[in-house]
């Protein structure tokens, strides 16, 4: 692979220490967490203690005000180790940035320090049983009644759903206005009328808690509105490039890691009296994957660089999300094939990575929606 130029020496040091943290605190427990359906709360507190949560939160709110490359390192290393249950990316890259960008000073003072320390785990609830891609169709509604919004509705497939203490809920505050009547509310999970449903059973990401959430006459203080009423859709559009970058960083790091493990495997495994690495088919498959991953790495690093200067636009982010997740799934599928029957056994990382990867083409906007965004920009 080509040498990466997007990181500096302090990022490399951070990467080394985060790798050590994961090796000690997450890798030995992940198999158990897969059985439990979620990681431990202790992992979150320890990550907060060592400064691995929400690197971009400014110092005045308990963070270190670092740049997004630190988030990228966290995403990449979690993917490198195949720790698909660790939902730091959703918290640090996706949910908390809404509080940073649109929260009032009071909300930032109240919540951000606890997000950084791991005392509060966050989630973002957009999808509903009846609608996902077409977010304008959401039914969850919030009606202002004096000092509170009264929130009613339900959400599904919410990452960190069981663990979450604080949820950004996308709700209609003015159903007649369509997308212009959509707002973002910051809702404490301990509120009366807020119920968490079951931890949903998935084909992969077994240690990641994914849940339904139900709201019945939940009283949300009107100060917990993020930004202005009716601006929810615009805020979502503004934050989605970062979410898609985060997915892409995870995708390519995961594919690279499984690719490296596959090279080691084919050099060891024998068939017909030879190492399977000596077959031309094996070498051709590896060559194709290596070329694809080299190209993908350059594109993703360029997108990360653009994001640092706030130049990553919606269409480029859609291209990145589409390509990186397709490449991830294709590469891991080829790697699984090169493992033969062992590739189908969950004991091998490639098998778990195969199941974990599939959802990447679905969430953060399906890849069909990415094509719509790109297509519309062309015509
Ligand atoms: C493990 C997991 C974690 C998730 N985490 C979260 C989370 O934290 N928060 C959250 O809010 N949501 C989350 N989601 C939900 C996810 O974002 C949605 O599943 C996704 O947006 C698709 O919505 P849907 O499932 O309703 O599918 P649908 O919208 O019903 O789509 C079904 C199919 O139709 C296609 N389709 C839809 N519209 C069009 C169109 N106009 N043109 C062409 N094809 C189209 C889709 O691409 C898809 O192939 C998660 C989902 C999963 C599985």
Per DSSP E runs of 2 or more residues, the count of β-strands stands at: 10
Average pLDDT metric: 97
What is the subunit organization of this protein? single chain
Uncertain segments: none
Largest sheet: 4 strands, mixed
Q: Give the termini distance in whole angstroms.
A: 36 Å
How much helix, percentage-wise, in residues? 40-55%
Please tell me how large the radius of gyration is. 21 Å
- Widest beta sheet: strand line-up: 1-4-5-8
Helix-strand sequence = HHHHHHEEEEEEEEHEEHHHH
Shape: globular
Structural class: alpha+beta
Would you summarize the structure shown here?
The chain is 49% helix and 16% strand.
Write up this protein:
- With 379 residues, the chain is α+β, with helices and mostly antiparallel strands.
- It contains eleven helices and ten strands.
- The strands form three sheets. It has a four-stranded mixed sheet with strand order 1-4-5-8, covered by helices on one side.
- It is globular.
- The mean pLDDT is 97.
- The site of flavin-adenine dinucleotide has 21 residues, from strand 1, strand 3 and helix 11.
């Amino acid at each position: 692979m080509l040498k990466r130029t997007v990181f500096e020496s302090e990022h490399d040091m951070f990467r080394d220490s985060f790798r050590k943290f994961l090796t000690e605190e997450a890798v030995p427990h992940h198999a158990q967490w897969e059985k439990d359906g979620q990681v431990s709360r202790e992992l979150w507190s320890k990550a907060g203690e060592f400064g691995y949560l929400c690197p971009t939160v400014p110092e005045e709110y308990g963070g270190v005000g670092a740049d997004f490359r630190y988030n990228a390192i966290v995403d990449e290393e979690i993917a490198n180790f195949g720790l698909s249950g660790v939902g730091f990316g959703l918290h640090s890259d996706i949910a908390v940035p809404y509080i940073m960008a649109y929260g009032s000073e009071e909300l930032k003072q109240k919540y951000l320090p606890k997000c950084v320390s791991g005392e509060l785990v966050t989630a973002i609830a957009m999808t509903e049983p009846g609608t996902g891609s077409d977010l304008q169709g959401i039914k969850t509604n919030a009606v202002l009644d004096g000092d509170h919004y009264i929130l009613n509705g339900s959400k599904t497939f919410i990452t960190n759903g069981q663990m979450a203490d604080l949820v950004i809920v996308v709700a209609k505050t003015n159903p007649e206005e369509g997308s212009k009547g959509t707002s973002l509310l910051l809702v404490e999970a301990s509120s009366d009328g807020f119920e968490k449903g079951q931890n949903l059973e998935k084909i992969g990401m077994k240690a990641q808690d994914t849940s339904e959430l139900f709201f019945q006459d939940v009283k949300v203080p009107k100060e917990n509105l993020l930004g202005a009423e009716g601006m929810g859709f615009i805020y979502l559009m503004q934050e989605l490039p970062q979410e898609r970058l985060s997915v892409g960083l995870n995708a390519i790091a995961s594919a690279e890691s499984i690719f490296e493990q596959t090279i080691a495997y084919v050099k060891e495994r024998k068939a017909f009296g030879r190492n399977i690495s000596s077959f031309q088919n094996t070498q051709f498959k590896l060559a194709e994957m290596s070329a694809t991953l080299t190209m993908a790495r350059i594109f993703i690093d360029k997108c990360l660089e653009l994001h640092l200067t706030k130049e990553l636009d919606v269409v480029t982010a859609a291209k990145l999300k589409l390509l990186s997740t397709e490449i991830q799934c294709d590469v891991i599928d080829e790697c699984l094939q090169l493992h033969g029957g062992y590739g189908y056994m969950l004991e091998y990382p490639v098998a778990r990575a195969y199941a974990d990867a599939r959802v990447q083409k679905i969430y953060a906007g399906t890849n069909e929606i990415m094509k719509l965004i790109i297509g519309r920009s062309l015509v």
